[in-house]
């Protein structure tokens, strides 16, 4: 087996940067700890250039930069982002695990890459897939490879691109791995470092009996899992059956134009999640949280199952132009509770490649988003024998049904039905088939009692005609066959 580890050393900073249209040029720090003793947990490059370091007291950091932008750490948002990354990596491997210790800000994801190498055409292509997903989500990460999960985690923490593709290479890597990057307990690290062992390779060379007397069984088990002496069983991640993602904004936004970038980011997350689940959506909603007003929602319903980020954003953008915000927004969340199977468009080998952006379905989606839900109408069959009541107009939506229950054993029907039946002389008709008696509608005041025939008129057209029963009944053309 070959494990690929993704280490996210600056996840808390990336979560804030994701809501910004451009990389923050202002010094930014993430703070944590008690109110009286808040310290710096993460810094961006402009803050680091001013001398602000991780672990520094917040007051000392503010002394170095008067206009320092400070954001409190959000462990729940970090864990949600980690789970979302795992769901997106599910399209690379079916064995995905969450790793690291969130309480210390040590975040990561593990996936088994050996079984997927043939599917992607080799290990390099798998790495490119993982880096592409990280780029889509806006995360800066370090990637490591090793034959054991713990070894891959350690390789990723040592630096981006650190790989040990065999157990022999892993043992050589451990010769250079500092104790501080391992998952040994702080007490074990202090004890081993005090005895002169600063690298994991030196620790593994110590006599096992002597080592077992000085460190806990959990630390000893970690060393065995790290070197491959025993199995390292991890609980596999299972992606959720619904999508929910929220994005807290660094500043209040008061117009829909300002929200284009964060909404694009959320839709990108949705598209990546759907690709990992091999699914699509037909309806979802955006929720806008306001400080001085109840939350507002923008419902989005589609005529077909979609998962393309650009298509979803185009449809949302059209609806945003007609959406009024009741107050400024401090948080946006996207919810898709009904995932559906997605079938990609198939094209014939010899036919011209069809541009799906110009397909009739996409055109209807754009028109509906731009003109409103009521602007595009669809014909819906009705269970009624009377021809003029056999269908009705209704707004096209995801609930439009083309398979409504129709009366059984209907005769042949014309493709063109006249709005008003036109009288015609019976001697001008050559009857071909019929009659078909239609007698209905006594309950709603539109009683209908007719005998229908298929006939040929003087212009040799095949028409649908009827005669009202009785001695005074006349003949009428009601439809024309195409």
| Fourth-level CATH superfamily of the largest domain | Reverse transcriptase/Diguanylate cyclase domain
List how many beta strands DSSP finds. Answer: 20
Total discrete domains: 4
Overall CATH class of the largest domain: Alpha Beta
The CATH topology label of the largest domain is Alpha-Beta Plaits
Helix content bin? 25-40%
- Mean pLDDT metric: 85
Distance between the termini: 65 Å
Structural class: alpha+beta
Sketch the major β-sheet. Answer: 5 strands, mixed
Rg over C-alpha atoms, rounded to the nearest angstrom? 34 Å
Q: Architecture of the largest domain, CATH level 2?
A: 2-Layer Sandwich
Q: Largest sheet, order of strands side by side? A: 5-6-1-7-8
Shape: elongated
- What low-confidence regions span 5 or more consecutive residues with pLDDT below 50? 398-406
Pfam family, one: IMS
Domain UmuC: 12-158
GO molecular function: transferase activity
InterPro entries: DNA/RNA_pol_sf (IPR043502), Rev_trsase/Diguanyl_cyclase (IPR043128), SulA_CellDiv_inhibitor (IPR050356), UmuC (IPR001126)
Describe the structure.
- It contains 15 helices and 20 strands.
- A hairpin with a 7-residue loop joins β17 (about 430-440) and β18 (about 450-455).
- Strands 5-6-1-7-8 form a five-stranded mixed sheet, with helices on both faces. Strands 9, 10, 11, 12 and 13 form a five-stranded antiparallel sheet that branches. Strands 16-20-19-18-17 form a five-stranded antiparallel sheet, with no helix packed on it.
- α4 packs across α13 (about 260-275), α13 packs antiparallel against α14 and α14 (about 310-320) packs parallel to α15.
- It is of the alpha+beta class.
- The protein folds into four domains: about 5-25 and about 75-225, 2-Layer Sandwich (Alpha-Beta Plaits); about 30-65, no CATH class; about 245-340, DNA polymerase, Y-family, little finger domain (Dna Ligase, domain 1, 2-Layer Sandwich); about 385-480, no CATH class.
- It has helices spanning about 10-15, 45-50, 60-65, 75-90, 115-120, 125-135, 150-160, 165-175, 185-195, 200-205, 210-215, 215-225, 260-275, 310-320, 360-370; strands at about 5-10, 30, 40-45, 70, 95-100, 105-110, 140-145, 160-165, 245-255, 280-290, 295-305, 330-335, 340, 375-380, 390-395, 415-425, 430-440, 450-455, 460-465, 475-480.
- InterPro entries: DNA/RNA_pol_sf, Rev_trsase/Diguanyl_cyclase, SulA_CellDiv_inhibitor, UmuC.
- Belongs to the DNA polymerase type-Y family.
């Amino acid at each position: 087996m070959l494990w690929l580890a993704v280490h996210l050393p600056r996840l808390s900073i990336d979560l804030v940067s994701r809501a910004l249209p451009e990389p923050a040029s202002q010094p930014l720090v993430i703070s944590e700890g008690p109110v009286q003793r808040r310290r710096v947990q993460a810094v961006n490059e402009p803050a680091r250039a001013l001398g602000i370091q991780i672990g520094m007291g917040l007051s000392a950091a503010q002394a170095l930069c008067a206009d320092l932008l400070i954001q409190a750490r959000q462990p729940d948002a970090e864990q949600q982002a980690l789970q979302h990354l795992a769901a997106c990596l599910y399209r690379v491997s079916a064995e995905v695990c969450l790793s690291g210790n969130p309480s210390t800000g040590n975040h990561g994801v593990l996936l088994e890459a050996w079984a997927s190498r043939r599917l992607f055409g080799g290990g390099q292509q798998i790495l490119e897939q993982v880096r592409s997903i990280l780029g889509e989500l806006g995360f800066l990460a370090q990637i490591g490879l090793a034959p054991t999960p713990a070894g891959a985690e350690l390789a990723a923490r040592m630096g981006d691109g650190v790989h040990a593709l065999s157990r022999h290479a892993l043992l050589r890597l451990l010769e250079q791995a500092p104790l501080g990057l391992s998952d040994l307990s702080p007490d074990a690290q202090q004890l081993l470092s005090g005895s002169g062992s600063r690298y994991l390779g030196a620790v593994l060379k110590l006599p096992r009996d002597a080592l077992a007397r000085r460190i806990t069984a959990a630390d000893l088990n970690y060393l065995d899992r790290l070197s491959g002496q025993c199995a390292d069983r991890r609980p596999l991640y299972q992606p959720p059956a619904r999508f929910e993602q929220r994005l807290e904004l660094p500043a209040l936004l008061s117009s829909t134009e300002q929200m284009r970038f964060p909404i694009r980011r959320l839709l990108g997350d949705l598209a990546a999640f759907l690709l990992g689940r091999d699914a699509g959506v037909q309806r979802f909603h955006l929720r806008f949280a306001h400080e001085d007003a109840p939350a507002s929602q923008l419902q989005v319903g589609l005529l077909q199952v979609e998962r393309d980020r650009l298509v979803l954003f185009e449809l949302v953008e059209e609806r945003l132009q007609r959406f009024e915000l009741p107050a400024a927004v401090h948080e946006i969340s996207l919810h898709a509770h009904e995932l559906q199977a997605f079938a990609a468009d198939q094209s014939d080998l010899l036919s011209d490649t069809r541009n799906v952006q110009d397909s009739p379905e996409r055109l209807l989606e754009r028109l509906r988003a731009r003109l409103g839900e009521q602007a595009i109408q669809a014909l819906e069959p009705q269970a009624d024998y009377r021809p003029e009541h056999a269908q009705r107009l209704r707004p096209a939506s995801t609930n439009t049904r083309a398979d409504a229950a129709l009366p059984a054993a209907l005769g042949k029907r014309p493709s063109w039905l006249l709005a008003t039946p036109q009288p015609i002389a019976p001697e001008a008709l050559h009857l071909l088939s019929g009659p078909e008696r239609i007698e209905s509608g006594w309950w709603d005041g539109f009683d209908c009692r007719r005998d229908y025939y298929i006939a040929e008129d003087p212009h040799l057209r095949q028409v649908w005609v009827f005669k009202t029963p009785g001695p005074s009944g006349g003949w009428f053309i009601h439809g024309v066959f195409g």
